[in-house]
Amino acid sequence: MNLRLRLTVLALAGIPTMAAAADLEVNSTTLLRIEEISVRGFDDETIVPATTFLGIDANRLGDGNLSFHLHGWGRLDLGDDSTRGGSADGDLSYAYLAYRFPVADAQVKLGRHFVYAGVANEQLDGVSARTDLAAGFTLSAFGGAPVRLNMTDDNKGDYVAGGRFGWRLPGYLEIGVSALREGGIDTGPASAIKDYRQLVGGDIWVAPFRMVEIRGHSNYNTATDGFAEHSYLLQVTPLRSLALSAEYSDYRLRDYFASTNLRSLFNPDRDENLRSYGGSATWTIAKPVEVSADYKRINYDSPGRGNTNRYGAEARLNFLERKLKTGLSYHRADADNSINSYHEFRGWGLYDASRFRGSLDAIIHRYDDGIYSEKTAYELIGSLGYRILPALMLSGDLSYGENPRLDSELRGVVRLVWNYISAAKGGSK
Questions:
Q1: DSSP state, 269?
Q2: Is residue 399 within 8 Å of 422, Cβ to Cβ?
Q3: Does residue 16 carry a pLDDT above 70?
Q4: Parent domain of 29
Q5: Dist. CA 427–CA 429, nearest whole Å
Q6: How many domains does the structure of the chain reveal?
Q7: The whole model's pTM is what?
């Protein structure tokens, strides 16, 4: 049993104690996936992994301000191995204690958890804290060991630390500056990469008027001496029935992917910029009818990569007091390289009542240039669910598709979802 599974088992052993002294919420989802894959030139495969996701939230521990949170998963293959890691696997996404102080909206987390603070988007084994200061200022900090991926330890350091300092005018403005440093990185075969990762950045959210909102951030990679990204979004709602948005992003791949552990996919040695901009509009014509249109332009600095225009529209309808929802959409990707150009057609429907749930989704891609002499790819997905008990639901998905790389692909999933809620002064809900 690996370390992550041991941690999960130890955490589960404490459930009875927590149930007696806290507001306890437990949710579990078990998936049984059935998939047959036929690839030209290879033996057919039957993939049948059984995967369970488990989440636990125990609140009002101790003096009422302490809580415990856990989420993890485990998998067992009942057919051919679904990964190269063997027939069984598991992972602990997070398991941490959180204490919320009664003043200054202060909070401390200890254990494995995620941190989102300006330039930081980290999963770590360690501690993080945040608090409000006087005059609208805020402060957050974190430190610990980066969680290593199961597949490789390359490009993961021995420690990571950082924080964010901000100021806000409630309802109108929030700005912040942040930084992080990850040290002791094992660069593996990529010896040109530095043995540390260091980012600084600034972020902003501003709403000068009730109908206008702007948010964005810029991050600078001090290890490579270059801006990693700029990303900004403008949202305008001139009418309750009309929403407009515009976005702009700029990535310098050498600085953005400098510490990636998948260099074959995210190649930081390709020194070029990727810029994109576009917008969308959504209009609620009447209560059950909504239409939207969007456009996005993607530009590469390298002439050989080419640029792409993606645009399209979607119509969504709601019936039976929103129990039945349907939609139709069309999008076009028009690229300088015709191999990246295609038409996309999609239609879907969803029915969601108190006991029954069903959906049907169809998507078709029509490529300008054939791939292995084929120009069409499609997939059909159907789902049906039944709520056996208020806290227990059984559902299943079945999909079939064909594309230029697969003669056929048939997949099925059986899903069992259980949600349990118990209050300290009452029974289960």
A1: T
A2: no
A3: no
A4: 1-100+390-429
A5: 7
A6: 1
A7: 0.81
